[in-house]
Amino acid sequence: MKVYNTLSRKKEEFIPLEEGKVKMYVCGPTVYNLIHIGNARPMIVFDTVRRYMEYKGYEVNFVSNFTDVDDKIIKKAVEEGVSAQEVSQRYIAECKKDMAGMNVKPATTHPLATEEIDGMLEMISMLIEKGYAYPAADGTVYFRTRKFEEYGKLSHKNLDDLQAGHRDIKVTGEEKEDSLDFVLWKPKKEGEPYWESPWCQGRPGWHIECSVMSRKYLGEEIDIHAGGEDLIFPHHENEIAQSEACNGKLFAKYWLHNGFLNIDNKKMSKSLGNFFTVREISEKYDLQVLRFFMLSAHYRSPLNFSADLMEAAKSGLDRICNGAENLKHLSKNAQAAQMQGTEQGLWEESGAFVQKFEAAMDDDFNTADGISAIFELVKYINTNVDGNSSKELLDRLYQRLSELCNILGIIVERKEEILDEEVEKLIEERQAARKEKNFARADEIRGMLLEQGIILEDTREGVKWKRA
Ligand code: AMP
Ligand code: ZN
User: Fold this and answer.
1) Atom 15 in ligand 1: which residue has the minimum CA distance?
2) DSSP assignment, residue 203?
3) Which letter, b or e, does each residue of 227-255 get, where b requires 16 or more Cβ atoms within 10 Å of its Cβ?
4) In this predicted model, what pLDDT tens digit does every residue of 77-117 receive, in sequence order?
5) Whose CA is nearest to atom 2 of ligand 1?
């Protein structure tokens, strides 16, 4: 399995630190609002990475934090006249609902920054002891960036270029030794949440939380650290500096970053105001469609969001689900139980699409090509099974198709709005009406079912139905 590592800017063979295990950390959202579909991209793509690793037999320890102390949360709390905790807890709960809708598995651990303050104080103290950090007179603690010699290795930035860039910016932290130094701990402002510390009553900087939570839940060295590409600099660069300076070990072996979700070819973001929340999308589409749309592109490529592309995703997903439904329907009515005649050959031949899928996913999680392999499998199924196929073949093919879809987090079984039995009963009633030549009633039933999103097809094998 090859993964693109931002650190080396190359695709590298994935070799876990410990055989059969993967330790993975994904930077999670800052919870001050409903998540937008840009935030959903890393959730969906790295959940898919996790699922594929699990399919390959790895035991994955997957940690993803919620940043629940931050300027934006405090601002929102002040606007609403409630506590910062109330705001963050509300949006964590909402975020979890959206994640469930997108079929993103809960992490092994979802730590909260506010519950990990002790670990942060400990790491900051160690960095001070080792000479990598220093408290300024006002109680702010800074990281001594130039002391960490490898600073810039992830973002491939040169310290002197960075310094030159900084000269134009007014340096607000007058107490800093160097304009490149960044904050580990900062003093509270009036009315803000704060914690006691040896330096001042205050709160942590953003970067230190991930270094601490990653170490606590996964250990000093991990396999994969991931997030959106905007996090490469400064967030991940600073995490590396803190963790490696403190622990004296390589922090993460592979750094994975997703490309941006754009709208009209501009980054979708809250500050630009050009965003859709996941909740808004869920009013129009099943969130499976959003997931399928996200995976239709390679995770490192930019992806433009548009109504047309969502419609295309919807019809693509329908094609797959219809294929699966067809198999279920045929299986229910199959005459032969065991595979027979040429069926063994068909079964073996269909394995080629699994190999194609795996080859795509082994190549840096190329979900776009993985989806093409699934489409090919569906086409193969549709052309090679019919009312004469055995139940065994039909069920095995269903398993094969749903297993591949499941790696992408796509559930092929449709949600049951109206119970199958109810549909079946109405179909029976319609058949009886037709026998009695009561075509008005038969048409009425067809119309009723259509209203519930059920489409009837009269075939030689009998009446088939599917959900629209
Ligand atoms: P934030 O809440 O801004 O810290 O973002 C949470 C995660 O969403 C980070 O990994 C970001 O990189 C990612 N993210 C934010 N906006 C986008 C976007 N438009 N496209 C892709 N990823 C994004
Ligand atoms: Zn982080």
Assistant:
1) 39
2) E
3) bbbebbebbbbbbbbbbbbbbeeebbbbb
4) 999 999 999 999 999 999 999 999 999 999 999 999 999 99
5) 29
